[in-house]
TrEMBL record:
Molecular function GO terms recorded: ATP binding
Gene3D superfamilies in the record: P-loop containing nucleotide triphosphate hydrolases (3.40.50.300)
Species of origin: Peribacillus butanolivorans
Keyword ATP-binding: yes
Entry-linked Pfam families: ABC_tran, CbiZ
Domain ABC transporter, residue spans: 2-239
Family annotation (SMART domains): AAA (SM00382)
Protein name: Heme ABC transporter ATP-binding protein
Keyword ATP-binding: yes
Domain of life: Bacteria
CDD domains: ABC_Iron-Siderophores_B12_Hemin (cd03214)
SUPFAM superfamilies: P-loop containing nucleoside triphosphate hydrolases
InterPro entries to which the protein is assigned, alphabetical: AAA+_ATPase (IPR003593), ABC_transporter-like_ATP-bd (IPR003439), ABC_transporter-like_CS (IPR017871), AdoCbi_amidolase (IPR002808), P-loop_NTPase (IPR027417)
Keywords from the named record: ATP-binding, Nucleotide-binding, Translocase, Transport
Length: 490
């Protein structure tokens, strides 16, 4: 649909673009990225015939751009510029109708019913039909943007050029505009070429991205390839982190603000932050901690400041235990969004905790262990779904800076230590009469201050893994013994 070869040029003697070559296919959503001043708008101006070029070629539908008359070009391409103002005062509908100009013929341009149908359709698509009789200059920036998009679509172009299309739009219209672009690209084979400053939106919506750097193409590829952490850091000269989108196989880049001295102040989570009561065990951190957990609230990965292990009756049974737990936390002064919350049927005074220190980092481990529901994982298929009360809740606070993989290693290491504790205490699976490996509802939390020593690994043989192994083993043994004693006393 569009072929660019060796495009070089700029303004007067100032060369902005240097040997730019690429193709865009029909029906493709193609994103142009690059830092300020890298030449994105200059390229778009050349592609849309606004800015002349001396070296290289641009071919649209196999024909050289320079062979098109202005009107012919307007029948094929439409442009939604970044900043727009109108010289005259038009209503919204009149503004959109100007898009039909390229399709009108003869000296006396007559307005056909087809023109009317198209204008009404594009006004609906862009959400501006409701205010079609208002004057353009009375509109907000976002509303104007949508009116100009409607005008561009009224042209019924084959290629739509967009310069920062979501600039003035609120969140829902950003999504709607880009959803519409993608729909039109896929269903009507509209070719969309758009400049983006928002790398995440570009990554979410575009089929391919082209990254410009100082007037040259740094890379053209699918979003996952272009949006590499090191590359973006280098080209944009800033610190960012790349993470997967939570719902889609797409990359997302996060800005990391510069840290201040207070962000590095040493923090050691230990017993002083812990309170053990009859109804809850709570640990309140002075700062949010990076967490990975299987709590009833705060599960998955996140940042949490409060940690609650709540005693519930053996017969606790709510259909929506997530909502019930959230209500419980609220009535006890905890914000559920900021709290990792777990439940246990054991008496909370049977808790075991231990602080362990290495040269330049430390861990604080807290375990409650009910084993009435102990299961041998290798024979789990012999169990029915109905479970008895009893669960092992393991909390591991790390005073260090954990890498993503260290969170996973920590869970593996802690699980191995727990299994060994059950083995050594000969905790039995009552159904199979074999040694249990855990209970059916065990829960775990890894929470790290993300300050101090960088800890890349937490396998059993690493310094962190050794502390976790020792601490989880000792605490699990102690908690099970205390719990057994407590039950004997009843
Ligand atoms: N009309 C002009 N006359 C002379 N130089 C210009 C003109 N317009 C842009 N430039 C220069 O060309 C270079 C590229 O500008 P361009 O607007 O294409 O970059 P961009 O990648 O779109 O930047 P931004 O992200 O800031 O919009 C810049 O150095 C800019 O100063």
């Amino acid at each position: 649909m569009l072929e660019v070869k060796g495009l070089t040029g700029g303004y007067g003697n100032k060369a902005v673009l240097d040997s730019v070559s690429f193709d865009v296919h029909k029906g493709e959503l193609f994103g142009i990225l690059g830092p300020n001043g890298s030449g994105k708008t200059t390229l778009l101006s050349m592609l849309s015939g606004v800015l002349d070029y001396k070296v290289g070629s641009i071919r649209i539908r196999g024909r050289d751009l320079k062979e098109y008359s202005a009107k012919q070009l307007a029948q094929v391409i439409a442009v939604l510029p970044q900043h727009s103002s109108l010289a005259f005062s038009y209503t919204v509908k009149e503004t959109v109708s100007l898009g039909r100009y390229a399709h009108q013929t003869g000296w006396f341009h007559s307005w056909t019913s087809e023109d009317e149908v198209i204008v009404q359709r594009v006004m609906k698509q862009t959400g501006v039909a409701d205010f079609q009789d208002l004057h353009f200059e009375r509109l907000s920036g976002g509303e104007r943007q949508r009116v100009l998009l409607a005008q561009a679509l009224a042209q019924e172009p084959e290629i739509l050029f967009l310069d920062e299309p979501t600039n003035h739009l609120d969140l829902s219209y950003q999504k709607e505009l880009l959803d519409l672009m993608r729909k039109m690209a896929k269903e009507l084979e509209l070719t969309v070429i758009s400049i983006f400053h928002d790398l995440n939106l570009a990554g979410l919506y575009c089929d391919r991205l082209m990254l410009l750097e100082k007037g040259q193409i740094q890379v053209i590829n699918v979003p996952n390839e272009v949006l590499q952490q090191e590359r973006i850091q280098e080209v944009y000269r800033t610190t960012i982190e790349k993470h997967p989108h939570p719902a889609l196989p797409k990359p997302q880049m996060f800005i990391v603000p510069e840290k201040h001295v207070c962000d590095f102040a040493p923090l050691e989570i230990d017993e002083t932050y812990l309170t053990v009561g009859n109804e809850i065990i709570q640990l309140n951190s002075p700062i949010p901690l990076r967490t990975m957990s299987s709590g009833v609230t705060g599960s998955g990965t996140g940042w949490h400041q409060h940690f609650v292990n709540r005693h519930v009756h053996r017969d606790y049974n709510y259909e929506d235990h997530f909502a019930e737990m959230a209500d419980f936390l609220k009535t006890h002064g905890f914000e559920p969004q900021e709290t990792v919350g777990m439940m246990t049927a054991v008496f909370l005074d049977t808790v075991a905790f231990k602080f362990l220190r290495d040269a330049d980092f430390s861990v604080f481990i807290i375990v409650t262990a009910g084993v009435g529901n102990a299961i041998d994982a290798s024979l789990a298929d012999q169990h029915s779904w109905i479970s008895n009360p009893g669960t092992i809740n393991t909390w591991i606070f790390v005073n260090g800076h954990l890498a993503e993989e260290a969170f996973i290693h920590s869970i593996v290491t802690a699980t191995e230590a727990k299994v060994k504790a059950l083995h050594d205490l000969r905790v039995l699976d009552k159904v199979t009469n074999t040694v249990a490996t855990g209970t059916s509802t065990d829960s775990i939390l890894i929470a790290a201050a993300q300050r101090g020593k960088a800890l890349q690994y937490a396998g059993t043989i690493t310094p962190l893994g050794k502390l976790i192994s020792r601490g989880v083993y000792d605490c699990t043994v102690e908690a099970i013994k205390k719990n057994r004693k407590r039950i004997e006393e009843l």
